[in-house]
Amino acid sequence: MKGLLIKDWRLALQQKRFFVMILIISFFLNFNLNGNFSTGYLTFVGAMFVMSTISYDEYDNGYLFLMSLPVSRQTYVKEKYLFGFLLGMAAWLLAAVFFVVYQLAVTADFTMGDTFLIILIYIPIFIIVIDVLMPFQLKYGGEKGRIVMFAFIGGMLALGYLFVLLIKMLGVDLSQNLYAVSYVDVVFGEIAFFLLAAVVTGISMAVSIRIMKKKEF
Amino acid sequence: MLKIEHLRKSYADFTLDCSLSVPPGCVTGLVGKNGAGKSTTFKAILGLISRDQGSIEIMGKKLEQFTEKDKQKLGVSLADSGFSIMLNIQDIAAILKAMYGEFDNDKFLAKCQQFQLPLHKKVREFSTGMKAKLRLLAAVNHKAQLLILDEPALGLDVMARDEILDILRTYMEEDEKRSILISSHISSDLESICDDIYMIDEGSIVLHEETHVLLSDYALLKLNDQQWRELDKKYVVKYKKESFGVSCLTRKKQYYIDNFPEIVVEKGNIDNVITMMVKGENV
User: Fold this and answer.
1) pLDDT: is A37 or A133 the higher one?
2) What is the mean pLDDT of residues B58-82?
3) Could you tell me which residues of chain A have a Cβ less than 8 Å from any Cβ in chain B?
4) Is residue A99 pLDDT above 60, yes or no?
5) What residues in A contact B48, CB-CB < 8 Å?
6) Does the pLDDT at position A31 exceed 70?
7) pTM of the model as a whole
8) On the CB side of B113, how many CA atoms lie within 13 Å of its CA?
């Protein structure tokens, strides 16, 4: 497991210029767009890099050699989830720092608790996104997996758009309803999201291990 | 050290059915033309493909019971696969150190320098020979008990192949219980290092012989039609029609030298044995 983490970390370092660029973009997005968006953006870009490491692994018959090392297929899968979570968390922490800096600089009535609650939601969301994409990436590989990833993101956006459209058609004023949501509701909502992420991770990992065990190299 | 019994793997147009063993302290070669089943055999040994039937035992343990810790006792070099070409030797050393409890980092880096492999350049900038040496060095520096080497000298010139063979000789000299299973299409490499050789063709082992027997007792007899008709064929393994008459493979060279002195006897080597085993007919 440790060896695989080092491998993926060293592969991630190959993209350090890209990451620095994303960090700069993300930092300035805070000032030009909603800081909330920037947090999500950085977190997802960080977490999604784990999918690229799978592409690196399979490039040039890499799996053949990788699976001949002292690594089981189960360990390989677990490491990918762990690496994705670690990258996502690191990106989220950075994004959180940027967000707080922005809030302190720009917003007068800034409260740490509220801010924390707003950006905390990105953690279970990025975990669930990894959970959904990982089995596809392992089953179909880099190229096809990427198509599935884009289809998934497109599907999510379409669903969101349809939801907003439906709300408008029904004449519901969502902003009024949101203001009615209490602090306690938000906390419970976040806890529910984290629990959901844990359950989805368990299911996704089991599916991924099954996919990997059936693979022929 | 390694025992394969009736390993069977079927594809749409190919079936592997092979048994072989590698005793402790031995270097065993696996030869055969492209597509004969060498790589499929290696993949099965490493658990990279499923098998339809048969058993594989490594160091007294069934393959299905082989753990990550057990795999630390193996060293593997595959012809067309290795670490990501985006990494450099320093990266690879760090990974191997974390993966193998017995990995000798200093020795690995020293060997890489000895073979003029740049430590900080990405592997993608390496030549074919440099990549092959790196793959092998990565396999021999963690006190592995068994090396599985699929075409370790593929695409290399004579000098580079000699260096590869030197690495293997050193590896074997360090511990007399170590073993190697090696495949190569360059028979002279195998003749110089292997204790015994298996020949595989169309998925089946067609010959297994100790190398010194193969080189000393096997021979190619070249005969005209009349000599062929009069020949005592009890030690003829295979024969083939030629423009001059018949050539045949025997495993008792001395018998024919003593009893048929007029026959042309060509010393056996792996190449002509393979050719006869694959293209020749049974008597």
Assistant:
1) A133
2) 92
3) 2-3, 5-7, 10-11, 14, 56-57, 59-65, 67-72, 75, 216-217
4) yes
5) 64, 67-68, 216-217
6) no
7) 0.85
8) 6
Q: Is the pLDDT of residue A34 over 70?
A: no
pLDDT of the residue at B198: 94
pLDDT of residue A84: 94
Query: Which residue bears the tokens 């021999």?
Result: B140
Q: Where do the domains of chain A lie?
A: 2-214
List domains and CATH numbers for chain B: 2-212 (3.40.50.300), 218-279 (no CATH)
Q: What is the ipTM of this complex?
A: 0.85
> What pLDDT score was predicted for residue A143?
72
Strand pairing category for B61-62 and B15-22: unpaired
Size of interface A-B (CB pairs under 8 A): 85
Element (H, E) at B61: strand B61-62
